[in-house]
Amino acid sequence: xxxxxxxxxxxxxxxxxxxxxxxxxxxxxxxxxxxxxxxxxxxxxxxxxxxxxxxxxxxxxxxxxxxxxxxxxxxxxxxxxxxxxxxxxxxxxxxxxxxxxxxxxxxxxxxxxxxxxxxxxxxxxxxxxxxxxxxxxxxxxxxxxxxxxxxxxxxxxxxxxxxxxxxxxxxxxxxxxxxxxxxxxxxxxxxxxxxxxxxxxxxxxxxxxxxxxxxxxxxxxxxxxxxxxxxxxxxxxxxxxxxxxxxxxxxxxxxxxxxxxxxxxxxxxxxxxxxxxxxxxxxxxxxxxxxxxxxxxxxxxxxxxxxxxxxxxxxxxxxxxxxxxxxxxxxxxxx
Length: 335
Prior knowledge:
The chain has helices at 10-20, 130-136, 159-188, 203-206, 226-232, 291-307, 324-334, and strands spanning 25-26, 46-47, 51-52, 60-62, 73-87, 90-105, 108-111, 116-123, 142-144, 193-196, 211-215, 220-221, 238-240, 243-245, 255-261, 274-280. The model has no long low-confidence stretch (mean pLDDT 91). Strand 5 (73-87) and strand 6 form a beta hairpin. It contains seven helices and 16 strands. The longest helix has 30 residues, at 159-188. By secondary structure, the chain is of the alpha+beta class. Strands 1, 3, 5, 6, 7, 8, 9, 10, 11, 14, 15 and 16 form a twelve-stranded mixed β-sheet that branches. 39% of the residues are buried. It is elongated.
């Protein structure tokens, strides 16, 4: 979408809203934080169950061999959301989501195919006057953030609640464009791709042997007790025993996973430099698991990830857990 199109930027989107929708109170752009930086209702830190499949207990495993680059590409997405105007307690929010695959060609990263970029308005139509907004911005340009739930109830008209609903809707849109781009890769490619985040949201992606997910956030921990102590004590270049993470919802698929320490935590907190890797659960329906094959796969993928620690992803504050290919994808999308 070019800069001449109606919602190419937050400023052009605000102009369109002011021209097409009566009785709105615009905000002064640049004075409010993006919704992504608001304190909100992120999932509470918790421990979830997982099954050890490589061996009976979770242990530390030094990754054998030298780190070796193995990924052909890196996939990441971004989102941004900003309040444009208010109608009483109801915010009208501009959201932009994007995803890109950066492919390694002759030791340089270039864009694979075309990135997916989508821009929409997000508003609680029960409180804004559905007809005015829908006639000015017909779907899919407009998303209702106050749609009734399974019980037919709509959210209360609390401004903070409605802002959180908008932020969640933008996050789901980002997950959707990342999933669609990953599925495109899986349909035509067999070369390994590293995805920033989990892979279980799509059966196509979760079952593909060419996909590896690297999760930087640890609000959910899939180890407890002695196993948690083992994971937090991992030294740089060590991984944990492989576990199986069961589906976390009706739309999720099981995956194999393990923890990997990218950088030494000395002088930092226990999660410094720690990532969780996800890969296809090829034996999800089998009564037994080939532990030797799983070990070889985990060691190989871990060597690939350890090789991506350089160049360092500074000045990003998450550089201890971020591989450079993901950092490159984020910087590309910012432009």
